[in-house]
Amino acid sequence: MKGKKIAGLERNVFFTGLTSFFTDTSVKMVYSVMPLFLLSIGASKTSISLIEGIAESTASLLKAFSGYWSDRIRRNKPFMVFGYGLTALVTPFYALAIAPVHVLVLRFVERIGKGIRVAPRDSLIAGSVAKNETGRNFGFHKAMDNSGAIVGPLAAFALLYFFPLNFQNIFLLATIPAVLGMLTIALFIKETRKVGATAYQFKFRQLPKKYYFFLVVIFVFSLGNSTDALLLVRTSETGVKPMFIPFIYMIFNVVSVMIAIPIGRISDRIGREKLLIAGFLVYALVYFMFGAYNDIRVFVFLFALYGLYSALTDSCQKAMISDLTGDEQRGSGYGIYHALLGITLLPASLIAGLLYDKVSASAPFYFGGSMALVATLMMVLFWRRYKV
């Protein structure tokens, strides 16, 4: 659906980006302090990993179903309104949590909201722009998403500075941007699809073999890509004051915001595969160094590199799904992709948490770096075979 542009972008792309800015401000206010909050109420590193893994993985099945049903009814917006609304509803209840199991329940419900909205949202973005502009527009969305991920930790840092270890204030104030995000979707997003005369029937064979090959690559990489909470736990063990943890996490998002749009444009010109290969290699370097060092100065640099990895991979992966799927199957294609990411997070986080608690603080990072190298080799094979 094309109409009057805003800042050179299709209206839907701009307002979807604005929604992600508000929502990620809220989510990252909570997420940047959640490992410290969980440790304060008696959680172990394995428990922290499991909470994130269970919440993401269980709810991730909804990503596949929401993508399928958005294709079937040819509507994206209802799924987005409900999904973003659920996040806004749950956020203030973190202030009432007094045990790790309470956080698990709330994270699970909040991730259900994400599971419902993500695939239809990506389908709406892809359906709002020309095929040769998907990298640029997903790059803009990534930049807006990570801009919220800068503002959120900054707000959390400020609140912890003035109210040390008062996590409840952060959880309550994080509700405000979450509500703004939901209202932006409800008021400003327009549907891109028209209701079809016949019901859509999805079949797995409708998606090409190269799509499934790509998913195998992503699965291998994701198996070593455990929750970022462990990066924050590792950083806290250097002795840095807790109030600086959200600020350090923000560095990763600043770098990602600065280069996400240029990376998206480059991917439209030279192809996604090369950038994904580079991103996997950067990830491997970051994780190996997190395992080898325990120095806050090194970690600050590594969080900046982590931002480079994020910019190189996130928007390119989403644009690649658009390249590999047709218009009729795009929602289902995004749904399966996001479901795979979520489901894989459970074993990835469990493995990482157990390695952290039972082997050493370095072990989960060496494992993650090794899996990234295997995925790099597989991505090279994909590139040479298909040259999408």
What is the CATH class? Answer: Mainly Alpha
Q: What is the helical fraction, as a range of percent?
A: over 70%
Structural class per helix/strand content?
mainly alpha
Q: Unreliable runs, pLDDT <50, ≥5 residues?
A: none
Distance between the termini: 26 Å
What is the oligomeric state here?
single chain
Rg calculated over all Cα atoms: 20 Å
- Can you tell me the CATH architecture? Up-down Bundle
What's the short version?
With 388 residues, the chain is mainly α. It has helices spanning 11-31, 34-40, 45-73, 77-90, 100-127, 134-162, 167-173, 175-188, 209-223, 229-236, 245-270, 272-292, 296-324, 330-359, 363-386.
Describe the structure.
The structure is a single chain. This protein has 388 residues and is an all-alpha fold. Helix content is 78%, strand content 0%. The protein has 15 helices and no strands. The chain has helices at 11-31, 34-40, 45-73, 77-90, 100-127, 134-162, 167-173, 175-188, 209-223, 229-236, 245-270, 272-292, 296-324, 330-359, 363-386. The chain is globular. The model has no long low-confidence stretch (mean pLDDT 86).
